[in-house]
Amino acid sequence: MVKVDLDQKNMVIEGLIKAREWEALVTILKKMPVVEVVEVLRELEDPELLEVLGFFSPEEQGYIVSDFDADMQVELFEALGPRGFAGIFIHMASDLRADFYQELDREDQLKLLPYLDKKTRENVIRLSSYDPETAGGIMSTDFATIMGDMTAAQAIEKVRSDAPSKKMIYYVYVVDNDMKLHGFTTLKDLIMAEPETSIWDIVYKDFAWAEVDEDRETVASKIEKYDLVAIPVINKYGQLAGIVRHDEALEVIQAEQTEDMEKFMGIVPDDESLDYPETSVLSHFRKRITWVASLAVIGVLSGMIIHRYEEAMSALIILALYMPMVADSGGNVGSQSATVVIRALALGQVSLKNWLMILLKEARISLMLSVVLGLIAFGKILFLSWETDIPEQYSLFYLAFGIALALSLQVISATLIGAGLPLLVKRLGGDPAVAASPAITTMVDITGLLIYFGIAVTLFF
Amino acid sequence: MVKVDLDQKNMVIEGLIKAREWEALVTILKKMPVVEVVEVLRELEDPELLEVLGFFSPEEQGYIVSDFDADMQVELFEALGPRGFAGIFIHMASDLRADFYQELDREDQLKLLPYLDKKTRENVIRLSSYDPETAGGIMSTDFATIMGDMTAAQAIEKVRSDAPSKKMIYYVYVVDNDMKLHGFTTLKDLIMAEPETSIWDIVYKDFAWAEVDEDRETVASKIEKYDLVAIPVINKYGQLAGIVRHDEALEVIQAEQTEDMEKFMGIVPDDESLDYPETSVLSHFRKRITWVASLAVIGVLSGMIIHRYEEAMSALIILALYMPMVADSGGNVGSQSATVVIRALALGQVSLKNWLMILLKEARISLMLSVVLGLIAFGKILFLSWETDIPEQYSLFYLAFGIALALSLQVISATLIGAGLPLLVKRLGGDPAVAASPAITTMVDITGLLIYFGIAVTLFF
Q1: DSSP code per residue over A369-386
Q2: Which residues span the domain enclosing A240?
Q3: CA distance A326 to chain B (A)
Q4: Does B268 score more than 80 pLDDT?
Q5: Is the domain of A240 the same as that of A198?
Q6: Pairing of β B168-175 and β B181-186
Q7: pTM as predicted
Q8: ∠ CA(B108), CA(B114), CA(B115), 5° rounding?
Q9: A6 at the B interface (CB within 8 A)?
Q10: Angle A70-89/A46-54 helices, nearest 10 degrees?
Q11: Which residues of A162-173 are buried (b: 16+ CB within 10 A; e: fewer)?
Q12: Mean pLDDT of the region B120-146
């Protein structure tokens, strides 16, 4: 293998760009993976970009522009005009082409359409009509089909003759004259089979598929479960409408994970853009304020509880001092158990049926946590409060014991709430991740205050 | 397409199992995807399982057992004994076979080895020797190779003749006599090319590869970046040592995401098992206690600050009442900004170079948050505390203003700490996700108390 020194390659490319040696540059670019070509082109100004693109064939142009960011695509569209861009557009990957089309405003869409051939035009309009959160919204129509009554040799010939470079042909779909999907076979099976083998003998009729309006997350997990290179998408008539490729599934899984993490932190997910630098300050603000403001309002509840015990705190100031400690421990362990349960649910390691097992397990874990954290709290109070003003009738030892006991009970209750809340949300048909960490902290604050002052009043007054 | 009713299919399968009609059952199973076959077999007892497996060919057995859970594999190993199991073992997928081998204890490994042919034995020992966190640890050796001086037709013939069912042949690797990797071509290119085309004319020489000791996360992101079906793994001599498939990349990304989320919640990740039900209560406890106990100890610091202001609180009990509110708001917004920054770093949307942009953006977001949350706090205090015991020289209005001001400043400082801490950890070479939410909460508690009492002492005393 030629282990090309990356820095050296980059230097050569930079040199060619500076020298404006576009043809030599393209000779090098043509040997590079498309992603890297795009990285190089991203650095060019518009006029240079157009010049360089001109050295590629229309098909290669379509392939490269498919990989552009939305911004770069729109810029190119403006530089070339609808007529010029149409030549590239018809060669783009069908799913990415539809994504770009949706980025254009209505006016530009109407300018572009007349320059497209009928097939492309219909394809783009159809693909753009699906909800982006569904299988239809992420599928591509660049798939290969054969008929069941062909032989393996005929099938290979068919695939060969109508597979331009962008098509995924590792899976070949078996359809009838009405495009109804009857199964699929793999290019590998076609190659390995004797040329005279009938397709019906090597077709997989029992296979995973998705429906056009199926949630994209479900589609991605099917691809994951069955280790597929692509999954076929069918419409309500059982016709093959498109395929979703494995790399699309990976992107969906990444996006859903970001959403889960954000939801869990009480950030309202945003369809427009999940990209940090490109999201405006205002929409960052909007994504975050909803939860924290709601929680601040709900905080009135804990405020009312605290006020009920105002006199107790005046009489025994040490109670005020350790109120935050008890609340914090609850928030920490509650968020931990919620994280663990939400993740186990998301990965399918546990389901709602296991709720009792989960709560029992968390109960046992919380017992251990409560002993350790209770002991630490006890030691901490003795260490910190030996100078604190305590009314004569109390011993510090007794007060420390009571506060540590409250903290231990709070740890147990918070762990169970943290584990139980996501289960409850899921049971009610919601996404467990919305059992957000701030929500758990707030809820656990309230129970914590009740436990804390409940114990204090019982033991000390 | 035959849209098989799933319930009906399951009923048929259940019926056949009850009737012990193993041969008929296997006829149906042979048409099903392997994952689903394993789901059916999982329900069987050992003697039945052995009987059913017997109806599959050794190669099919290897394929099915590759997909078993570790527990099921070990059970089967014990039921069949080393000699019987070896017949299945040699037909398993090389990467999953090595994983299973590592599950066995030393004694069982030594029992199994003598029954393996030399090639399998060497392969297993070699693959098991790599760190599971590296490319070597997740790679498979089931790849297809050709020589550069072949023609397309010869290459297809070579792939056809030495590709058993488990091999990935969509990418075909071009090597020399020393197994040095010179590039790859795709099965699609081979099919599309004229039979007489020389491989050198269609080989990709500039391509993404991984090294055996490369971190598996980097390997997964290369597969993602280049949209690959598989990535070749080379050893230090430039020889092709294995491939990592796209489905493996997906698993790695899922596992790393769980790790990130757990780290962020102060849960110490655990190599042994990330599966919730299979992890013991004790190791769940161990994974969680480290952080919360450390934070409880660090909490001594905030305890000391609170004690310093004990007298202020005795004099003005309203200060004690709103101390938790200020701390909580800080924890919430701090965790939010940390989540956003950690995720943007993990997805490569931002890098350390952007630290100033990030902090400036967060500063602007925090200003907006502080205004809204400050106003809510002001209203809340007026609403809750109109009955609170306030010394004559103060007006509730003035106190509410001071406390709300402290909360606003706390929101700004906490947002910046939440965004800055992950950046700092990354700068120091650590994983930003360890800037855990509990750590941020604790840190923000301390700064919050300083801000709170600092403002209170300045304005009220």
Answers
A1: HHHHHHHHHHHHHHHH-T
A2: 137-253
A3: 10
A4: no
A5: yes
A6: antiparallel
A7: 0.79
A8: 95
A9: no
A10: 40
A11: ebeebbbbbbbb
A12: 92
**DSSP code of A91?**
T
pLDDT per position as a tens digit, A130-156: 998 899 999 999 999 999 999 999 999
From B32, which residue of chain A is nearest by alpha-carbon distance?
A206
> Which residues in chain A have their CB less than 8 angstroms from residue B238's CB?
1, 3
Both ends of chain A: CA-CA distance in Å?
A: 81
3-state secondary structure of A315: helix
Spatial contact of B61 and A254, defined as CB atoms under 8 Å apart = no
CATH number of the domain to which A210 belongs: 3.10.580.10
The residue of chain A with its CA nearest to that of B232 is A1
Do A329 and A197 fall within a single domain?
Answer: no
Judging contacts by C-beta atoms under 8 Å, the chain A residues touching residue B322 are 303
Asked if B340 has any chain A CB less than 8 Å from its own CB, the reply is: yes
Please give the tally of structural domains in chain B.
Answer: 3
How are beta strands A181-186 and A168-175 bridged, if at all? Answer: antiparallel
Residues of B in contact with A328 (CB under 8 A): 295, 299, 327, 331, 441-442, 445
Q: Which residue of A has its CA nearest to B368?
A: A285
For residues B339 and B436, what is the distance between their CA atoms, to the nearest angstrom?
Answer: 9
Amino acid at B206: D
Is the CB of residue B249 less than 8 Å away from at least one CB of chain A?
Answer: yes
- Whether A34 and A183 map to the same domain: the answer is no
Give the tokens for residue B24. 């008929």
Single residue among A111, A129, A147 that ends a domain in this structure? A129
Put simply, whether B194 touches A (Cβ < 8 Å) is no
The owner of tokens 């280790």 is: A227
CATH code, domain with B373: 1.10.357.20
Per residue in B59-99, pLDDT (tens digit) is: 899 999 999 988 899 999 999 999 999 999 999 999 999 99
Domain end marker among B129, B147, B175? B129
Task: State which residue of chain A sits closest to B288, comparing Cα positions.
Answer: A336
Residue A288's alpha-carbon distances to A301, B368, B412, B436, in angstroms, are 22, 10, 14, 19
Q: How far apart are CA A188 and CA A190, in angstroms?
A: 5
Hey, what's the torsion of the CAs at A234, A127, B246, A29, to 10 degrees? 150
- DSSP at A168: E
Shared-domain flag, residues B125 and B142: no
